[in-house]
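Task: sequence in, structure out. Protein: VOC family protein.
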Amino acid sequence: MTSVSPTPGIHHVTCVAGDPQRNMDFWAETLGLRLVKRSINQDDSGTYHFFFADAEGTPGTSMTFFPWENLSQGKVGSGQVSRTAFRVPEGSLHYWEDRFDDFGVDYDERVERFGETVLPLRDPDSLPIELVEVEIAEDDPTVPWTEFVPAEHAIRGFHSVTLWLANPDSTMDLLGAMGLEEVGTEESPGDTPGDERTRFAAAGPVGSYVDVLPTVQAGRQGHGTVHHVAFQTPSDEDQSAMRSAVQSQGLRPTQQIDRHWFRSVYFREHNGVLFELATNGPGYDSDEPLDDLGGRLVLPGEFEARREQIEAQLADVTVPLAPDAEPTEADD
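Result:
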């Protein structure tokens, strides 16, 4: 039997947004993440796919969006990623609260969870987000992007995702098969509708945690919801072994699909959450220089031959840049 290397943690999280310019403004300017890739949904070429990450697009840092303007507002519920949390350096939440006040961001009172301080907020599509204060190690693999937010406060990749599940036991078994270890449970006051939160930890330093909360509350996909969560399987060999482990759990993963910047396998876990296994390469700098990430609309593979047609379907968007920089449009 092929041995399975435990996943190092979350690779990326992909969500559904509404207006693409509003989405761009919030994630690039308000939260200060770098637009490392602007492309299209490879299964729906009339829709953008935005990738926001750290300065180098390090695995474990990219929050991505499909801005499907024609969809209705979604509702977070069972069978979804209900919260996506990001790491920020210790002592930086005061900075973020002041920034959110300045930018009119909807946020809540801080809460304590597993000994850490958490600041809940929502993006313009009401997507639930959290900032979690953590100690950032000197050898941390993430590289802060400082165009809008100083390094001492900048977001440093994922902290965790929270899953809302009707029947958590089978999903918890799956997480164990993927190499995550159960590290604790605690009551979760203020979480609707969760009563007890169970935390699993992956092997890597970024995007290490998956929290599980039981709920039967119905949800629906739309603006402000997570489409899927991807976990790192760094190499093709790691991915193949993990795919076999997933099959052994009675699930039906796809064959490998080339997503140009990584290679992917998809499956719905037992409670309906869409999971992805993603390789760490070739990376976002495989088709653009590191200094120019996000600088143009990238159309991978066969889509480049249809550039004129595709650009005609996409709304013009302007990437927020520092005041002394020249703005660029996505159809340049």
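The chain is about 15% helix and 35% strand.
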